[in-house]
## 1
Amino acid sequence: MTESQHDAVVVESLTAGYPGVTALEEVSLRLRPARITALLGANGSGKSTLFAALLGMLGKQSGALRSGAVRIFGTAPGQARKQNLVSFVPQHDHIDTTFPITVEQTVLTGRYGHMGFTRRARPEDHRAVDRALEQVGLSQLRSRSIGALSGGQRKRAFVARSIAQGAPLMLLDEPFAGVDRGSEELISTVLKDLAAAGTTVLISTHHLEGVAALADDVVLLHRRVLAAGPAEDVLTPQQLSAAFGSVFSAGFSNPGPGGNP
Ligand SMILES: Nc1ncnc2c1ncn2[C@@H]1O[C@H](COP(=O)(O)OP(=O)(O)OP(=O)(O)O)[C@@H](O)[C@H]1O
């Protein structure tokens, strides 16, 4: 078995972008299974474009172009989504706060891929929802309208939806943006538990704070992959300065003396 057959995600020479913009250039990376990888990059460094590629959504945006290859557990991204191999927690949920859907119903939508055409929830779907709500500490708020949650609680609800889906690869776009410290700590703990149980987790973030404590591996992205590897190798002041020196003043938080972000 080759090394790539052990990887959860393989991206080879991916070049992608939009009319007049090359968002990703010759990006190659591998995600090791059952680990948390942080995709670190400043605003506009290509994180969302890479997520779109991993979700097989790139071609759906008008004018998007791409070359290269992406495999999720050896499968093309669009197929991987259909097979429930990948779940996604978006940065913005674009919720209509007047829409009358409860927290529980929101989390249950994560089970749709398991229910077939009838979308009739079975006992195992309800059990998965119960477990996921418990994990993110929202059991008590399950009957509340999703629009009546705080930003941090709502993020936890969407993490629960992703957990309930039960995909072996979980992608989270800026999971800590606009989230209070308590929700951030809770989500971090949940992600560590999921990875320990075998889920491969990829989070994008432009905040250095907390990454060292959370991520096993780090990918530094700035249209190209500037560095990738175990967090302790990548998150050094030297590496960050070499890779992002000019970016510290344009979006990154300074890791501080000693480089312990
Ligand atoms: N739909 C689009 N059409 C044209 N250009 C786009 C589109 N989406 C993104 N871009 C451009 O592609 C580049 C990469 O953007 P992308 O959103 O992937 O970066 P990002 O790292 O996710 O940024 P952020 O942290 O601000 O979300 C940027 O220059 C951006 O302006």
## 2
Amino acid sequence: MPTSRPDRAFAVFGGTFDPIHMAHLACAQYVLKHCAVREVQLMPCHLPAHRASPGVSAEHRAAMVQIAIEHIPGVHLQSLELNKHSPSYTVDSLRLLREQYPRGGLLFVMGMDSLAYFKQWHQWQNILQLAHLVVCQRPGSSAEDGDCPSLLQHYGTNSLQDLHLLDAGKIMLLDNPPQDLSATRIRALLEKNQQSDELTPLIPAEVLQYIKTERLYSGI
Ligand SMILES: Nc1ncnc2c1ncn2[C@@H]1O[C@H](COP(=O)(O)OP(=O)(O)OP(=O)(O)O)[C@@H](O)[C@H]1O
Ligand SMILES: O=C(O)c1ccc[n+]([C@@H]2O[C@H](COP(=O)([O-])O)[C@@H](O)[C@H]2O)c1
């Protein structure tokens, strides 16, 4: 690992987190373990730029993130999008983070399904001037999908050193064990009032308890 940079890289993992689930946590922990970052920040969006507003408020989604990561060292909540009442464009959030951390590698974490349509993101070229992308494997998505081949041709790297010696501009695919899990599936189970044992492997127990206490998704 290069030691010449005084500002150790950190990672930001943006998501709707409606709700946060085990695959999100596995990705965050994989990045923490394999990308030599000092921390991973989970950043729930307030108003997604690209999809309908979630039925569950940003405050509740952030509370679930906080509960889920409470006992995971090195993984923290990044709340900068929560109080914004305009769409949560990633480029704006990264600009704000860069004001706080002008130097050092900044890694934006996403799943392969997100990379596949990354060229539709607001000012996507500017995102790559502010951060690297680190991309988690996700069942059902591959590096052949959508925008992935051209992005990887121009920005791809297999070198972790690149992510630390450069501040931004590279895309690295990770080799995390894929987990076939989505928040959509969890919401469907919750809405059908499924028993907890079906949800147990999918979502932290404390998050499930919060959902029940706050009656967040209809059904339970
Ligand atoms: N199972 C998974 N494996 C890898 N990446 C994932 C997985 N689930 C979500 N992600 C990534 O996490 C980020 C945030 O995703 P999000 O909060 O929308 O979860 P989701 O499960 O995809 O939700 P939904 O089903 O509501 O779309 C995205 O970059 C997405 O690609
Ligand atoms: O900035 C954009 O144009 C943009 C478009 C699509 C997604 N994003 C961000 O990507 C992250 C994952 O989004 P999602 O829908 O998979 O939860 C989340 O932080 C979103 O704000 C951002």
